[in-house]
Structure formats: structure tokens, C-alpha cells
Design a protein that fits this description.
Shape of chain B: elongated
Number of helices of chain B: 10
Strand content of chain A: under 5%
CATH class of one domain in chain A: Mainly Alpha
Number of strands of chain B: 0
Order of helices and strands of chain B: HHHHHHHHHH
CATH architecture of one domain in chain B: Orthogonal Bundle
CATH superfamily of one domain in chain B: MetI-like
Structural class of chain B: mainly alpha
Helix content of chain B: over 70%
Radius of gyration of chain B: 24 Å
Largest sheet of chain B: none
Largest sheet of chain A: 2 strands, antiparallel
Helix content of chain A: over 70%
Oligomer: heterodimer
Structural class of chain A: mainly alpha
Largest interface: A-B, 50 and 43 residues
Strand order of the largest sheet of chain A: 1-2
Strand content of chain B: under 5%
């Protein structure tokens, strides 16, 4: 009963946020100086523009347009790109551009977590030691390096000067896995560095708190090896914040890959967003941004709900 | 036995002295402060320095290496002086980030503090508005805002000052919910304290309470996040420039980077100098913000 009410409340809140955000986006499109239909097909004749205006609902005012867009979105019609005389379905584009982005995000998360977990555990275990201090400083510095600066410098060193990997491009993992991984190394590294530092810092704080618990002293006093205590008794209870934040990042990263995808010319969703904004494909742009913000809100709500259900303590804390 | 007692006495005597002496600032703080001071100095007094003008091309020295006798940091492949470009970029980056964070922070703080203080319906609406704005990644949001606000057709390209103005406006809009949420959270914490309640019961006006009791306590937290915000504004500015929307023509660090990207194989310093400048500035801002935050925590724990 309680959980059901919570669920309904969260879902209502979530859909309200998405509806308002997407409406503001259409309002933004509406404020573009000039006629949107003219922006979509700058060289189209009057008749083509009229057809497009009707097809996208642009001739029905801002609310009519928004309703037209939203209802089509809900039935799975994501709108079109209008290109020199022809058009492309956004759904088709999405099918093509989603996998590269998802691979990129997935790899970055895996790399960041595999590095952050041992780093966080060790630096918490040896709190205040030289290792901890050096690791903290290095990580704090690397989290502040902007992703694009890192990406450019990495591609300058490893692709241009050393020539170990190709500087740009994307290859499907099912066609040529070797080329796929080779091309992914630099983009994944430039995404993962920032993630690793923030994950390590989160885990370190939690592990330090857990190490002070009585049951850890108890386990250690029973003669269980340090490694086993760390993994079995300390890591599990202190990993919730880390996992929450990793899940939250899934939503945020979809939008965050724009710059990395642009620099390494990976045809992902971020690249498509930048392209649709640059070529003023207002309908496609609205759809893509709406999907990203939906993903963000969706992950946020889901994680919030899951922690609420699995850990009743958070419910009290929030009040 | 005697040894242990000796140890304990020296411990007792030594610790307070040591603690007092150990309160020196970390090395990173000095580094960050020096770099920020240098950047601000260059931004304000850069025009005094004997550097060539940043937007003239030297056709006799295209793509000169750094540490060349005529151009300290070299030139781009198009013959623009790197040092002059960096100094000019410092001015623009500092100006844009300071203005947008200050204005955005002021508006965000005002909205956050008032909504958290008065609660009720206003607070609900404000929280919802912040959530809506935060649900769109900030780079995407500023990209969309910029493309709408800085729209220009080919016949009437937007002027430089208009582009900078629009850039600052969209960055300000992005900053408002970020700092607003911090201000709201901090105010919620402070407005339930006893001294606020006491002041209320004495009949003090609401805005006097906010001005005298809430703002001074909320301000340090906002200041700390404000430094981080300056860093992220510089990052967003650079990202926008790389995406081709932003300040054109190498007038900002990001724009220099965007221009230099194409020549990366011939004159790599066109990339690593502005990238390094951006990275160092962001690192310094974060270090500074972190220092402010930790010294704040100490003050908190003393109470």
C-alpha cells in the first residue's frame, strides 16, 4: 500500500517533469526567429513548406504543435529529418545512433568501476597514508580536467603523434571487434577518468565510515584475513551510494557524450543532437533532447524508488 | 614504564601546539590562488603587455614553434600569435564566467532562499522548475538556448558582442537551477534552527530574518559551489566552441581550441596551450572551491 502510493506519486511527478521540459523545448523552437517550416526546408517551395507545416502540426499554434508532437511521440512516431528534398525517420536514425552511445557509456562505466572499487577500498583502508594522499590529489585533479581537453590531448598524443590508434571513427563490434575496441579506447578513457575519480571518492568516504562499525572489529578479531574482511564485510554494505551514483550517471552520460562523440566522430546520439541543432532540424532536435531528458528522469526516479524500497532508512532521512 | 609516561606527557603538551602549527594551507591552495591571480591579472592588465595584437595574422611567421624569438608561445598555422590569443581569451573567459555565475548565482540564491523560507506552493513550483531544468543536461540546454537566441541568417550574421551576450545569457540560465538548489537546501537546514524561530517569535519581519540570519549562513556554501560553477561554465564555453556554436574567430580559449583542432598534426601547440589553460583554470577553481568548503566544514564542526 505504502510502496504503491509512493510509486504512483513518483510516476506522476516524473511525467509532469518530462511534459513540462518537452513543452518548454517546443516553446524554445517556437521562439526561433522566422518560420520553423522555412528552417526545416530552406530551399523548399511554398507547397512543400505548407505540407510540412501541416505534417508537423506547426500550423496549429504552439499548443497544437506540442500536442501533435507529444501524441505522435507516445505512439512511437518520432518525427522526421527533412533533408534536401527527402526525409529520414528519426526512428531510423535512433536505431543507428543508439548502439555506439550505449557501448561508449557501458565501457566507460565498466572501466571506471573496475578501477574505482580497488582504489577506493585501498585508500580507505590506508586512510591518511601516503598512498591515500597521493591517490586523492591525483583523482581530485583529474576530475577537474575538462573531458574535451583530455580527449583532444589523448588523441594528439596517441593517435596523431604515436599513431597507435585511429583518431576518429566508429566500427560495429559485430563486424570487426578488434577495430571496434581500438577505436573505443580513447573516447572511453576520456569519459572514464572523471567517472573513476568521483566513484573512488564516494566509495572511500563510505568505506571509512563502515570500517568504524563494531562488526568489522569483531570480524577482524576473529582472525579473518584483512582482504576477506574488506571484500565480504565492508565492501557490500558500503557500495550502495556508489551503485546509486553509477546508475544515475547512466542517464546523465547519454547527454554527456556529445563532446566526446563530436571529437572522435562517433555517430552516437550526442553527435546526432549536435547535428540536428546545427542544421536546425527542430522536430528531430526536440525529439532527441526529450529522449535524453526522459532517460535522465527515468533513471533518477527508478534509482530513487529502488533505494526507497530496499533500504527503509532512506525514507526517514528524506523527511 | 617510564618511557610510556614520558611519551604520554609529551603527547599532551605537544598536540595543541602541533595542531595550531599544522593549520597551514595545502600546497594546492597556493598553486590555485597563484594561477587564478595570474589569469585575472592577464584579463585586466593584459593590454599593457608588449604582445602583438591577437587578431592580426603574421604572414611572415605561420605556425612558428613556441619559444621562438619573435613569438613567445608561437603562432597558429594562420599566423595568429598564441600568447596574445591566450591573454585575450583569458579576458573573455573570465568575463563570461564571472558575469554569468554572479548573475545566475544571485537569481538562483534569491529564488532558492525565498522558496525554501516560505515553503508551501511557491516552494513546490520552484522545486518542479529546478527539476525540469536539471533534467536536461546543461550542455544540451545551453546548446539549445544558444542556437535559438543567437540565431542569424547568412545575410545578417550576429555581431560579436551579441554572440557574447547571448552566450552569457544562456550560461546564466543554466547556472540558476544549479546554485538555486544548493541555496534551497541550505536554507531549509538553517530556517529550522532555534535562533530563526526566536527571531520569528519576536515579530521580526521575514525579509529581515532572511537578510540577517539566513543569508550570512547560506552564503559560504553558495560561494564554495560558485567556484565549482565557474569551472563548469568555462568547460561548457569550451564545449560549445568545439561544437561550432559560441564565440567565433579564436576570441576565447574554447574558440582557439576549436580553430586549432584542424591543425593538430602540424602545430599541436594550438591545441595543448588553450586546453592546458582551460584545464589549469578549472582545476584551480575546483581546488579553491574545495578549500573554501573544507574550511567551512571546520567552522561548522566548531559550533
Amino acid at each position: 500500500m505504502d510502496i504503491a502510493r509512493l510509486l504512483v506519486k513518483r510516476l506522476v511527478l516524473m511525467s509532469t517533469v518530462v511534459v513540462i521540459a518537452t513543452f518548454l523545448l517546443s516553446l524554445l523552437m517556437w521562439m526561433l526567429p522566422g518560420d520553423p517550416a522555412q528552417l526545416l526546408v530552406p530551399n523548399g517551395t511554398e507547397i512543400i513548406q505548407k505540407v510540412i507545416r501541416h505534417e508537423t502540426g506547426l500550423d496549429r499554434g504552439i499548443f497544437g504543435y506540442y500536442w501533435h508532437w507529444l501524441s505522435h511521440m507516445l505512439t512511437g512516431d518520432f518525427g522526421k529529418y527533412y533533408l534536401n528534398g527527402g526525409y529520414r525517420e528519426v526512428t531510423e536514425v535512433l536505431k543507428r545512433c543508439l548502439p555506439p552511445s550505449l557501448f561508449l557509456i557501458l565501457y566507460a562505466q565498466i572501466v571506471a568501476l573496475t578501477l574505482a572499487i580497488p582504489l577506493g577500498l585501498i585508500s580507505a583502508y590506508k586512510e591518511g597514508s601516503r598512498f591515500d594522499r597521493i591517490a586523492s590529489t591525483v583523482l581530485f585533479t583529474s576530475v577537474s580536467v575538462p573531458g574535451f581537453a583530455l580527449a583532444l590531448i589523448l588523441s594528439l598524443i596517441f593517435a596523431v603523434q604515436l599513431g597507435w590508434v585511429d583518431p576518429i571513427g566508429y566500427e560495429s563490434p559485430f563486424g570487426d571487434p578488434w577495430a571496434h575496441f581500438k577505436l573505443m579506447i580513447l573516447p572511453v578513457t576520456s569519459l572514464a577518468v572523471g567517472l573513476t575519480s568521483s566513484y573512488t571518492r564516494l566509495l572511500r568516504t563510505d568505506v571509512i565510515a563502515t570500517l568504524k562499525e563494531d562488526y568489522v572489529t569483531m570480524a577482524a578479531s576473529k582472525g579473518i584475513s584483512n582482504r576477506r574482511v574488506l571484500w565480504k564485510h565492508v565492501f557490500r554494505p558500503s557500495s550502495t551510494t556508489l551503485l546509486t551514483s553509477a546508475a544515475l550517471n547512466m542517464g546523465g552520460l547519454i547527454g554527456g557524450t556529445i563532446i566526446v562523440e563530436t571529437i572522435f566522430v562517433i555517430p552516437g546520439i550526442g553527435y546526432e543532437i549536435a547535428y540536428s541543432i546545427g542544421s536546425r532540424q527542430v522536430v528531430a532536435m526536440q525529439t532527441l533532447i526529450a529522449l535524453v531528458s526522459f532517460a535522465y528522469v527515468f533513471f533518477n526516479t527508478t534509482v530513487d524508488l529502488l533505494t526507497n524500497i530496499t533500504d527503509p532508512r532512506t525514507r526517514e532521512r528524506r523527511v | 614504564m617510564s618511557e610510556t609516561s614520558q611519551l604520554s606527557t609529551t603527547d599532551v603538551i605537544d598536540t595543541p601546539v602541533k595542531v595550531r602549527r599544522k593549520r597551514k594551507r595545502p600546497l594546492g591552495f597556493y598553486f590555485a590562488a597563484t594561477w587564478i591571480a595570474l589569469i585575472i591579472f592577464l584579463a585586466v592588465f593584459g593590454w599593457i603587455l608588449p604582445a602583438p595584437s591577437w587578431d592580426t595574422s603574421f604572414y611572415d611567421s605561420l605556425g612558428v614553434h613556441p619559444f621562438h624569438h619573435s613569438h613567445i608561445l608561437g603562432t597558429t598555422l594562420d599566423g595568429y600569435d598564441m600568447f596574445a590569443g591566450l591573454v585575450n581569451g583569458a579576458r573573455l573567459s573570465v568575463f563570461v564566467s564571472l558575469v554569468s555565475v554572479t548573475i545566475g548565482g544571485a537569481i538562483g540564491t534569491f529564488i532558492g532562499v525565498t522558496s525554501a523560507y516560505f515553503r508551501g506552493k511557491i516552494d513546490m513550483i520552484v522545486t518542479m522548475a529546478f527539476n525540469v531544468m536539471l533534467s536536461i543536461p546543461n550542455l544540451v540546454l545551453s546548446l539549445a538556448l544558444l542556437s535559438v537566441l543567437a540565431y542569424s541568417d547568412e545575410n545578417h550574421p550576429a555581431t560579436m558582442s551579441r554572440r557574447v551576450g547571448v552566450l552569457m545569457l544562456s550560461l546564466t540560465i543554466v547556472i540558476i537551477p544549479i546554485l538555486g538548489r544548493i541555496a534551497r537546501g541550505a536554507t531549509l537546514q538553517w530556517s529550522s534552527r532555534e535562533f530563526v524561530l526566536a527571531s520569528k517569535s519576536m515579530g521580526t519581519k521575514n525579509f529581515t530574518i532572511i537578510r540577517k540570519h539566513i543569508l550570512p549562513n547560506v552564503a559560504p556554501a553558495i560561494l564554495a559551489i560558485g567556484f565549482l560553477a565557474i569551472g563548469s561554465v568555462i568547460i561548457v564555453e569550451g564545449s560549445l566552441a568545439i561544437l561550432g556554436i559560441g564565440v567565433p574567430g579564436g576570441a576565447s580559449w574554447g574558440s582557439m581550441l576549436a580553430n586549432g583542432r584542424g591543425n593538430i598534426a602540424y602545430s599541436p601547440w594550438e591545441v595543448y596551450l588553450p586546453a592546458g589553460a582551460i584545464a589549469l583554470t578549472v582545476i584551480s577553481c575546483n581546488w579553491f572551491g574545495d578549500y573554501v568548503r573544507t574550511s567551512l566544514d571546520k567552522r561548522e564542526s566548531k559550533i
